Amino acid sequence: MHNPIATNISESARDFQHLVWPLIRKLGWLKGELIPVEATSTKDWSEQLDMLAGIDAWERKPKGLTGIASRVQWRPRYDKGYPYNTFNIRMSRVSGADTEFKKRIQAIHSGGELIYPYWTCHAYLEAKIVGPVLSVGLIRTEDLLECISLGLGFNKSNHEDGTIFQCIKFIVLYNEKVPIQVEPSSILKQGMLSLSDGPGQNPPYVSP
User: Fold this and answer.
1) Is the peptide bond before 83 cis (omega within 30 degrees of 0)?
2) pLDDT category of residue 43 using cuts at 50, 70 and 90
3) pTM for this entry
4) Residue range 175-194: average pLDDT?
5) DSSP three-state, residue 146
6) Rg of the Cα atoms in the chain
7) Is it the case that residue 206 has pLDDT exceeding 90?
8) Is 29 in contact with 181 (CB distance < 8 Å)?
9) DSSP character for 123?
10) CA 17, CA 108: separation in Å to the nearest integer?
11) So where are the chain's domains?
12) How far apart are CA 121 and CA 43, in angstroms?
């Protein structure tokens, strides 16, 4: 039976590898070799690595490997405010199952026992396969989770299954002087947004 979720993950990994990663390398944010988890692991193992550790790809450098969590979104039918220029992370599920936020917090505080992605990247594309990349943000996962814990984001829900996401705008992180890479940089020059200005336009649905 065709599995649309698995297909979507493959599309995301494909576009990250062929469209987003070349831009990241060109900008000099990360300079190693990208190793997509899906391309180098069995399906079962890549799913386990994604579900338990949140790692979608590795950056291979001479001194070792660094984990990356990647999220790619494409322009939806509703395009008001797109690209949304936020980092998004699951906070709660209707089922009560552990979410990526809880798993990453546990890993960060495990004293090195549990692995987690050092980097989190969120990219917004115009269309699948051809792109182009409209915007992309890169941040240390630990910094992102700390900012969520400090209340710098806002909640959005997936209307299909009730999952709650926490979203943080790139510009809010920039204003708070959190180390972050953003392209195009003009996103950060469109006016200094304070938390009192509110989240602005964001998607009513955040894709998995």
Assistant:
1) yes
2) confident
3) 0.84
4) 82
5) helix
6) 16
7) no
8) yes
9) E
10) 26
11) 4-197
12) 22
